Amino acid sequence: MGAHKESNSRHFSFQVNGYSVEPDLAAASMTSHRRLHLLLLATLAAVAVAGGEEEAFCRGESIQDAAMLRPDRLTVLLSGYSERRLPLLRSIAAAYAAHPLVLAVVVLWSNPSTPDALLSSFPPAVTLHRTASSSLNSRFLPHPSIRTAAVAVADDDILPDAAALSFAFATWQRSRPGSLVGFFPRSHHLDLARRRWAYAAAQPGSYSMVLTKLFIVGVDLLSKYFCSPELAAARAVVDRERNCEDILMNFVAAEESGQGPVLVEAGSIRDWGDPRNDDVNAGDGGEAMKTVGLSSTGGTEHWEKRGDCITEFHRLLGRMPLRYSYGKVVAVAGGEQGLCSKGGRLVLCDQE
Questions:
Q1: What distance lies between CA 14 and its chain's CA centroid?
Q2: What is the pTM (predicted TM-score) of this model?
Q3: Is residue 210 within 8 Å of residue 154, measured between CB atoms?
Q4: How far is Cα of residue 279 from the mean position of the Cα atoms in its chain?
Q5: Which residue has the higher pLDDT, 243 or 279?
Q6: Catalytic residue numbers, as ranges
């Protein structure tokens, strides 16, 4: 989860049609008029691309008919961006495709600069879709190949074992409509001193969000997130910050279900992106997995930014739908189930 790597060069920004525009100041040699003209053209092009994708996937005929969706199977949406991680992404996609409950696997590739030749060799059972932009909102694209009521949304460096995925799906089937079911909990609280919302790790037995590292969501919520005009300004925040799409989805789900998410604990989950991995063998993930793509965080700044997102979403929507959940649905004993490579062994990531 988290934002893609970005340049550290200084930028200025302004808003056009709700989009934040940040041109590089290296172009300062251009006249102000010329720079503004080019900037407006680039912005209008970006809006047209993003709007075109929304129009294509949010038309009435593109929205899945609930009566035609299979309740007994699961679609997996995998997000990809880093070309260095393509071998891992291919192997993860193939593993999901082999699961008996998975009807389809869709890889949403959001790096527009990747040559088509690099995106070959995915298994035949995997659908590859190049998104119109690198927007993190595209993680919830209601792709027309989805033919199931439930969708597992996952990072490109996470793979649950078969039992974990099956248990999460069964829990989702028994949950209230609109609920998110996930493995990695987080929370929010009101910072009274600073008069803002704060993002935090889940407290024992209490949480209000689950991460897109891996969660199960109803396909109807994908359409609501991606297509709802009411969420347009909030989606623009996600684009501006290159972060927080999972928080916004938790807002959407909490409002739909009227309750918090459901935390499950079952099986095991291999987590190549967790910074607590100590294996530096690039062939097994290693350092390359820690430093690129969707799972890099950013220390304290990352947590602060996500608190800002909660505060901004609350302001834009005019309400705070997030609700706390307590306890979890357990199949096996243990803690948060991410597995990291330590000393050549796979162990729970928080195990020393």
A1: 26
A2: 0.77
A3: no
A4: 25
A5: 243
A6: 246
